[in-house]
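Bench notes, afternoon.
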Amino acid sequence: VSDNQEGAYRLASHLAEQGHRKIAFIHGERTLVTQKRIRGFNKAMEEYGIVTPTEYMVEARYHDAASVRKATAALLDLEQPPTAIMFPDDYSFIGGQTEILERGLSIPDDISACGYDGINLSKILNPNLTTWHQDADRIGKESVRKLVESIEGTSVAEQIMVSGEFLSGNSVSKQI
């Protein structure tokens, strides 16, 4: 499995290190993956002394640009909108980006954004998306290796945590 807690922690920490204090998190549905990402986000916020209003934590569906666009609109409509938004995944970021741009706002000048997954699309978006790259190839290879070992009876079930990699795009600006 991917180290979802570490990935969310690193992304949230990056936003805080850039001076953001009004950081929202649009997370996916309530799953174990989401719980770990929320834990990572909250850990970073605690370490940086940032209090996150409950309205900054918004649920949307993974890989669903329409639901993320709606969640982004709700955040931007707040009396005190965030200066940065963490999106549940790179693909759904497109919904958030559409909402931000249609409001005449700029990424990252008006609002910073980051995704999750590190898919190739994140590298060709304008701006390039700051994201956490999950090593899907390694996760797949380890899964197959463990499956074969299990079938052959040479292995017991165990969880293997696969670390990812922070990819710094240009969708996050310093908050002054």
